[in-house]
Amino acid sequence: MGGIHMKTLNILLFFIFIISVNVYSQLLFRSGMFFHHSTGLCIWGPNGSTTSVPQQMTIYNNSHGYTGTNAVTMNEIWFPAEDDNEWCRWHRIFENQDTAANIQPYYAGNRIMVIKSCFPSSNIEAIGEPSDTLYPDYKTIFNYKWHWRHIINVMKTHPQNFFVIWTNAPLVPNQTTTQEALYSHYFCKWAKDTLANGLDPVFGPFPPNVYVFDFFHKLVGADYMLLLMYATSSDDSHPNAAATQLVAPQFVNEIFNASIAYEFIYGIKKVGSQVSHFELYQNYPNPFNPVTRINFDIPKNEYVTLKIFDILGKEVTILVDEPLTPGKYEVKFDGSGLSSGMYFYKLVAGTFNETKRMILLK
Questions:
Q1: What is the 8-class DSSP label of residue 79?
Q2: Using one digit for the tens of pLDDT, what is the confidence trace for 81-93?
Q3: How high is the pLDDT of residue 22?
């Protein structure tokens, strides 16, 4: 009799486990797009090497036992279509000011978005000063920091995406100078060690949905120039087969380790499945400091957006921007980067839309 009870209990626990997995599901950050030009294409591979980013993704999936929807995947695209992909242009692109390069359509279909510039960005001319921003294409450390802060400020308003931004591509000695190489080192070290660690006094806390891939320091020597063993030639700074062999595995491991870790931070979770109508609930707690939760119900397959606005109606961040299946959802909102005051959150799902207000009290 005891054996029967134990068998029944095991079956019951199994079904409870299955139900809990299906109800409290986590969204995955395991697929995306690599936006690159020629240097990025070399690293994508195989580029004459015995490996490539696609091959490394297969190795990564096999080593972690990831299959089906749990498997990591990535596609690549030459973007922007023209030859210019320097930081001043990425600044314009992310602030939606470049009519020839619209990145907006890529947000919805790519959980992970990887961007980079090519090696001309390493021809940094000076340390720079605040007036440099009057000439955005002037290659100074000051301007580069200014560009990155603006780019990442936009990225952090899209927590439904995980972004990766590469540091500069290094140059061979025949295509740079000692001073340019040193400036590039200073900038890339700031990006990885200061900015990405939340230590930049201007930018402040670094968003969890952005990862800095320090490409520059993977391939340089003590003089901060591209080692010839990783260059196409002494007059060509494109990465060669040896560079692909070195960086492709790091590209895959660093990026997907970081994006999968973000799955446990990202705020939206499906917490139930049985709903009969659209509903947006009052956030809790309210007032809050600095984290609150917003719940809503979606009764049918629908494209959903949930956005935060300030008292003046300016969009502060986008919490949800994707198609959702029927169910109950919970979203975590962190207002640590905002000032105290009244904010509004608006849910739009098909023809349904509703707005509620909340108070951040620090």
A1: -
A2: 988 999 999 999 9
A3: 41
In sequence order, what DSSP letters do the residues of 122-184 get, joined into one string? G---B---GGGGGSTTS-BHHHHHHHHHHHHHHHTT-TTSEEEEE-PPP--GGGS-HHHHHHH
Rounded average pLDDT over 106-131: 96
31 exposed, middle or buried (CB, 10 Å; 0-12, 13-18, 19+)? Answer: middle
* Residue 5 confidence (pLDDT): 52
What whole-number percentage of the chain has pLDDT above 90?
81
Q: Whole-model pTM?
A: 0.81
Structure tokens at 313: 């109606």
| E-assigned strand segments in the chain | 25-26, 31-36, 73-78, 112-115, 162-166, 210-213, 231-233, 236-239, 269-272, 279-280, 291-298, 302-309, 315-324, 327-334, 341-349, 352-360
Cα(223)–Cα(179) distance, rounded to whole angstroms? Answer: 10
CA angle 209, 213, 217 (to 5 degrees): 155
In terms of Cα–Cα distance, which of 280, 259, 246, 275 is closest to 356?
A: 280
Residue 113 has a CB neighbour count (10 Å cut-off) of 20
Domain annotation for the chain: domains and CATH numbers:
25-262 (3.40.50.1110), 269-360 (2.60.40.2550)
Residue 282 confidence (pLDDT) above 80: yes
